[in-house]
Amino acid sequence: STPVLQLDSLERHFTASGGTVRAADGVTLTVGRGEVVGLVGESGSGKSTVGRCAVRLDEPTGGTVRINGTDVTTMSRRSLRPLRKDFHLVFQDPSSSLDPRMTVGQIVAEPLRLHGIAKGEAARARVAELLAQVGLRPEHADRHPHELSGGQRQRISIARALSVDPALLVADEPTSALDVSVQASVLNLLADLQRDRGFGCLFITHDLAAVEYLADRIAVMYLGQIVEQAPTAELFADPKHPYTQALLSAAPVPDPVTQRTRERIVLSGELPSPLAPPPGCRFHTRCPLAVDRCRTEIPALRTLDSGREVSCHLVADDGTAPDAAAPRPA
Ligand code: SF4
Ligand code: MG
Q: In whole angstroms, what is the distance from residue 101 CA to residue 95 CA?
């Protein structure tokens, strides 16, 4: 069936004082109906840019964005409006997306009204139902966002996003601004709602435990590009790309077979600037396994025999991959 989100060679370049920032630089990614795709990578890797382009909050400068098969890449805001009910973004910090002058009831009801789905008594009943679904009480409808906790505010932005039953939810770090003590309950809520309603979800995060819990498939970004893509269990069991290996080695997730945690791979240096990505493999300046070829030749993101995707010169088509935790002697 048609994917709910289909990004093809998505680009988002913009001009800054130092030149052209390549925030997203050729990202190809799909989210199937009812599928949760995790997008992970360091901050500055372009994850949020991809999420914002996917819901047309940022304008792509190249490539295409399709929602439910419809090309929305260059659609005007006006023609986009009726389609808006199909896709929503939940932000990291709910306070920035909730109008402080509106009551919770008005905030949750607004999309219903804008899309002509319900008004008056019907809208009020629907709001009460949505509030219950996100674990809030009917009385919360009369409060203002500032009277609520961070966790409650995030529940409200989820209720608002889901009020019109979107086919796609883009969730950008939906729990990272919350107290650690409430992060798990908001993640559980998202997981429950996703299972019940079956919306497709692009889940953007740097929280590897969260993505392992929620996502069916994971795409790993580095400097504006996807470097590896695989089903969640396969990626965690056997990361192929040296960057993915380093990323996972920083998280205390024991190997499912040996129950040992991975040897920590500490990357040297900072993430290079997206103003001037390194030539060849973008990761070569920090890769413990880099060889001469990596400095000049761009590794294509290619499909392995198993169907997984990876962009590294040293990974063979049969999936044989070197271990970045044990680099060869120079
Ligand atoms: Fe490292 Fe080279 Fe593979 Fe890039 S292509 S990840 S630099 S080994
Ligand atoms: Mg971000």
A: 12
